[in-house]
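Team,

Forwarding the record for the chain on the shared tracking sheet. I've put the sequence and predicted structure together so nobody has to dig through attachments.
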Amino acid sequence: MMNSSLALDTPLQFVKGIGPKQAILLQKLNLFTVQDLVFFFPRRYDDRRHLPKLAELKSDTVYTTVGVIVSVEAASTSKKGKTLLKAVITDGTARLTVVWFNQPFLKNLLKSGTWILIRGKLERNMYRELEFWASDTECAPAYSAQKELGLGQVMPVYSLTHGLFQKKVRDWVSLVVHETLPLLEDPLPSTLLETLKFPSLAQSVLQLHFPTQGQAFIKARNRMAFEE
């Protein structure tokens, strides 16, 4: 049974939506308690406020873009056991073939009509055709794509292990951060925070997970670096 209130030392398996199986996956990232997840900061951020259109993409440049799946090819497997998935997507400006190399866990998520947000770059295949090789992928049904894919927002991107997905990790982080912020004890005295014009620990943690504006994010990052 999940706890209705969380403590910083609560094991992650008791957080709503995680459970024992997902907790084992999180342990591979050295995440064992709620506190571990609170201080599990993103490895990077995706600015999804102005994503490029498919027709605007150029080869050999890393992009984050979005489209809806038109068709999906049957997965192929090499003699070495490596999988290759392909799908055609569109955003109304162009059609594009997307390739996923050795990401078999996506097979059941890639369906016609599903919206996907992908990060990767255009490369030419052996036939000199342009294909988008995706390294990161998020999927959402059409009715909730705007919200689930964070379109129009700056979104945190976390380190993952096989079996974990960005949306799930974001949901878990959001839950534990918002519920435990009042429990965070700031090691810096208020007088020092005022002198250095630093935000509180709670404000910094919230800003580093879910940035709202550039200046506040920079102050939060500087404050956390000051303690290291």
